[in-house]
Amino acid sequence: MSDFDSDWMNLYYRTFFQVKDQTGNLIRFTALTADQYPFLKQKQFAIITAFNPMNRVVPRDENQKMNEKLAVDLIRGGYVFYPTVGELDGHAEGSFTIENISQAQAVEIGVKYRQHSILYNDAEGVRFVRCCRA
Questions:
Q1: Do residues 118 and 53 lie in contact, with contact meaning Cβ atoms separated by under 8 Å?
Q2: DSSP code of residue 6
Q3: Could you report the per-residue pLDDT of 25-76, keeping only the tens digit for each?
Q4: CB 20 within 8 A of CB 26
Q5: How many angstroms separate the Cα of 63 from the Cα of each of 30, 89, 108?
Q6: What percent of the chain is predicted at pLDDT more than 90?
Q7: Do residues 109 and 91 lie in contact, with contact meaning Cβ atoms separated by under 8 Å?
Q8: What's the whole-model pTM score?
Q9: What pLDDT sits at residue 47?
Q10: Are residues 114 and 121 in contact, defined by beta-carbon separation less than 8 angstroms?
Q11: Alpha carbon of 38 to those of 35, 47, 50, 118, 129: distances in Å?
C-alpha cells in the first residue's frame, strides 16, 4: 500500500464496492469490511471503471461512453462480468465486477482506461493495485 498517497488511501478504504455472493445477491463492502464476508476469500475478481481517468472529473456523458467501451472490451475478451457501483459520500461511479480475472489482466485493463488504480481480490484478500501514475 505504500505505493499510494495517504489521502487517496483514505478515500479508497471508505469507498463501497459490490460483488455477488454465492447465491447471486449483490453484497456491498469496503476494503475495511471485506473480512466480514468469508466467501470473498474464495473469489477472484477485479472491480474496474472507466469513469474519471486519472482521477480527473469528466462530464457524465463522457464517463458513460468510456464505460460502454470498457463493457465492449470485456465482452470481446470473454470475461464474466456484471455492472456494479463504487460509492463514497454520495458520489457514485459505474463500475464492472469481473470474475476470475488475473491481477495482471485487470491492471492491463486499468492502464488502457487510464485508471489510477483498481480493486482486486483473491485468496490473499482485497487490495488496491496501482495502474497509472497521476
A1: no
A2: H
A3: 999 999 999 999 999 999 999 999 999 999 899 999 999 999 999 999 999 9
A4: yes
A5: 23, 19, 19
A6: 85
A7: no
A8: 0.93
A9: 98
A10: no
A11: 6, 18, 28, 21, 21
